[in-house]
Structure formats: C-alpha cells, structure tokens
Amino acid sequence: MPQLQLIASPQSHAEPAWAVAFNPKRNLLASCSTDKTVRLYSYSLPSSSKPVHQHAFPSASSDKPVIHHVKTIETEHKRTIRSLAWAPSGKTLATGSFDSTVAIWEELDGDGDEGEEEGQEGVYKPKAPTKVSGDVDMDDDDGDEGQGERDVKEWECVTTLEGHESECKTVGWSADGALLASCSRDKSVWVWEVQPDSDFECIAVLMEHSQDVKNLSWHPHEEILASASYDSHIHMQWDDPDGDWCIFQKLHPKLPLSQINIPRSDAAASPSQGQISAYNSLVTALLPTPEEREAETYLNVPPLLEDETVWSLAWSPCGRFLASGGDLGGIRIWARTGNNPDSPFVEIAHTAAHSRSCFTLAWAQGGTLLAAGGLGILASAGADGKIIVWQITTPVSADGAEADAPSKKPKVSIAPIAAIREAHGVADVNCVSWLQREDGGGQGVLASCADDGSVKVWRVVADAE
C-alpha cells in the first residue's frame, strides 16, 4: 500500500506560507508568504526517477530527489502574497497579493548565459555529481544556498496589474498561457489577455459572486474557468461564441456526506509486515483519535445547516471532472455531462475527508492506469493539518472504455491511498502542488506549505520503508 514519504524540508519563510507551485518546464519550485517574498527552490531528480509505466510510484528505498533553496525574491508587494502561478511556458510567474495587485515576474537575461542548456536556466547545478541515497539529509540546505544563488539570475517585476478593490486571493493561467485570471475579496473575477512585450489587457470583469471569491481554476485543455466563493457557489465561466465572457452555470453543493471508505490492502490475503504497517498508518491518519472522539462527544456540536464556503478547486487531468473542497472538510466531485464547452456539470460524489476546512486540492496523473479506469490522484489538505492522497477511478467496460457515456451521470470511486497527520506540526496546511512533467519523471512528488512558514516536499511511494 502506498505511503507519503518526506523527502525535503528546505528553508522556511519567516511568516505563514500560502502557496507553492512547481514550474511546468523547469526544475523549479516557488513559494510565497506573508513575509512578501517569493522563494525559489531547485530540484534534481535521480536517474531512476522515470517510472516503469506512466502511473507507477517509486519504491521507498529508491533514490530521492535533491532540493535546494536557491533564490529569495524581495517583491514590492505591500502586503501578504496570497497566490502564485507559473505560465505554461515556465518563463513567467504571476503573484497575487492582499495589496489588491497582481505582479508579473520574468527572469532577466544577463551575461554568462553561454553554455546553459535550453530550459535549464536558473537550475541548481552542483559542481560535481553526487550519488543520491535514501539516507541523504535534505533538511539542511545552508551549505548549498550560496552556490544556488550564484546559479540563479535576477527576477524582475515587468508588469503590475491593478483593478481589484480588495485582497487578491488567487491567480491562474489558462492552459495555453494566453489568458490570466485573478479573483478577489471584492467579489470579482478578472480575465486578462496576454499581449506582446509583457503587456496585459483586461477583457472581462465578472461580478456574479455575492461574496469573497476564494479560488479559481482553469480547465486543463479548454478556456473554461471555475471560481469558488464564500457565497457557497462555484461559477463556470467561458468565452461564448459572441466573444463575451459569461457564466454558463452556477453550481451549488447539495449531496449529503458519505463516510470515508478506507480500502483494504491489495495483499490482504497474505500481507507483508510493510503492507500491514502502511495500512495501519493510513487508518491512524484518517480516523479520529480517542481524544478527538471524546471531545466531539463532550461538545456535541450539531452539524451546520447553512451553506459552506467553497475553498478549493482542482480539475481532473482529462478535464471531465472538477473537485471542490469546502468549509466542512468534505470533497465533492462534479462531472460534465456532455462534450460541448458549456455542457452542464452535475455533482456526483461527496466524501468525508478532513475534520476542518479543506483549503487546497491538487489533481494529477498517477496510480491506477487509465485503461483500468484511473482518473489520477487527488491531494487534499487543510485546517486539520492532514495531507491525504486519493485514488480516483471510474468504471470501465471490457474494452477499457468508460462505462458511462459523456451524456450520462458518471460514477466515480474516491479512495484514500496515503495520508499523514500533522504534516507541518500543528500548523494549517494552506497549499499542495504536484510535480507534473511531460517525461513522467518525479511521479508522485508533492509540495506543501503551511501557516508556520514551512515548505515541505513529499513523494508517494509504492511500499513502506
């Protein structure tokens, strides 16, 4: 049974860390914080990091990625940097701040670039190759920081986007990088079109939410934008045939909560000691402790009857499904019921997950093969300090095709496969982000950040250590 294995705890922020994001093209991880800085971490993968097949997890005893803090960008934001997002090209970084602005960052071209491989600008390169073993201490990067700083060029704020009247909560790029969206406490969603020479034109301001807009997420293949709000709704937005951005559907969570379904080990008939340990670890992480049960019984707090804030969103890799996380800690799955861009979405699942708000979701390929109904792996985290990894699957027919036609309401299975309590000690976990590479390297590598300012990097491993 898989487990979450900690592989790095690089240098922390001085104040709460709010977001992490892997660069889609380069060996970089970025984080942002209340301290108004962006930290860049460079990683190198062991030569054995490419999986046997696209969805396989590595062994716990296999060589680990090496991660170093290489650059701190002192921004000109006046308040907390709440969100960041890499453009699909990997060359541009957007940051959204509580000062209501969005900043666009690009790496400066300077002298000394000769000899760098394409796509490797700013990547930490050790002077001598070092074998990475399972017992390497990744927590101490002080001795490497200077080397990394010399290898990373300067980053410059090339554009500042203004328009929001209050805190900017989330920024995100469309799949092709042609559009940038931002959302705010001012109840608005802005869509910006990327112009030549780092210029941006606002092409839409959507004011349909009645409360603070907490999150947004672009469809992985189409120009469809989902936004989530304190008003308990998810809005599905697109550029209609007339060329106007509009909402084609408002989603309101309604399904009752289903209890978490903890799967038995695949080797239940004759489990090894490691499999038993992994299963027990999963159960321990997911179920309430005796102390928590006693506290719940003593308090006897009835369930909330009012609507819940929608905190987080994540699209499935195929783009047919959308996951959302709410204030009550559950995870909901929504499915598109047609093949048109504005085909309606329906709520198809609502599973118990966290004991407090689910602040963050991230969905990537991995685990069960597509031919066997695999829809990828979903990571969730939140105010209870847990990180949970879920395997999402859908029924398939004998020929390997989805059993449910797109026009029907599909079925999905949501099963936890790995989890860890107190991932960042007693701190809330604010963001998780998967490493996703075109070559399949680094399968199952996950970054997280928390209220204590810490940034951690994990990986899903196929077996216990």
UniProtKB/TrEMBL annotation:
Source domain of life is: Eukaryota
UniProt xrefs under InterPro entries: CIAO1/Cia1, WD40/YVTN_repeat-like_dom_sf, WD40_PAC1, WD40_repeat_CS, WD40_repeat_dom_sf, WD40_rpt
Q: What GO biological process terms does the UniProt entry carry, in alphabetical order?
A: iron-sulfur cluster assembly
Keywords (alphabetical) are: Repeat, WD repeat
Q: Name one GO cellular component term.
A: cytosolic [4Fe-4S] assembly targeting complex
Q: Where are the WD repeats?
A: 10-42, 74-106, 161-195, 206-236
For this protein, the record's Pfam families field holds: WD40
Q: Where is this region: Disordered?
A: 110-151
Composition bias (Acidic residues) maps to 110-120, 136-146
Which family does the UniProt entry place this protein in? Belongs to the WD repeat CIA1 family.
What does the function comment of this entry state?
Answer: Essential component of the cytosolic iron-sulfur (Fe/S) protein assembly machinery. Required for the maturation of extramitochondrial Fe/S proteins.
- Protein name per the record: Probable cytosolic iron-sulfur protein assembly protein 1
Which gene holds the coding sequence for this protein? CIA1
